[in-house]
Amino acid sequence: MDQHTLRPPAGAKRPRLRRGRGNASGKGTYSGRGLKGQKARSGGKVRPGFEGGQIPLIRRLGRKPGFRNPFRTEFQAVNLRDLQDRFAAGDVVDGE
Predict the structure, then answer these.
(1) Residue 27 contacts residue 18 (beta carbons within 8 Å)
(2) 49-75 b/e with 16+ CB inside 10 Å = b?
(3) What angle do CA 27, 45, 57 make, to 5 degrees?
(4) DSSP secondary structure string for all residues of the chain
(5) What is the pLDDT of residues 1-48, one digit of tens each?
(6) Handedness of CA 74, 77, 82, 88 (dihedral sign)
(7) Distances in whole angstroms, Cα of residue 63 to Cα of each of 30, 50, 57, 69, 72
(8) What number of other Cβ atoms are within 10 A of residue 78's Cβ?
(9) Phi/psi at 24 (nearest 5 deg)?
(10) Is 0.85 topped by the overall pTM?
(11) Percent of the chain with pLDDT over 70
């Protein structure tokens, strides 16, 4: 198998949809945009987080800073100097 002979499996690639090329194409007139409205206009899109005039989620949430991660792993600080005095070489050292 060579890199220049690789092909995607049959049916994986679909031809690009050409919109707005006459009514006979099935995607003419409104070209899949529906009728009127902001999203039907050229360049018409809403900014991220816009909820149609409703108070956005970011403003509805509380204003307290910070975040507590429920999946946080707790670590214990251990000085190697202390381990030298308590354990012999080859002993198993764990949290207990």
Answers:
(1) yes
(2) eeeeeeeeeeeeeeeeeeeeeeeeeee
(3) 130
(4) --GGG--PPTTS--PPP--SS-GGGTS-TTTTS-SSSGGGSTT--PPTT--TTSPPHHHHS--------TTPPP-----HHHHHHH--TT------
(5) 899 999 999 999 999 999 999 999 999 999 999 999 999 999 989 999
(6) positive
(7) 43, 19, 12, 18, 23
(8) 10
(9) -65, -20
(10) no
(11) 99
Structure tokens at 10: 């049959």
| Amino acid, single-letter form, for residue 67 | F
Distance CA 51, CA 11 (A): 37
Token readout for 94 is 């764990």
- For tokens 């409104």, the residue is 30
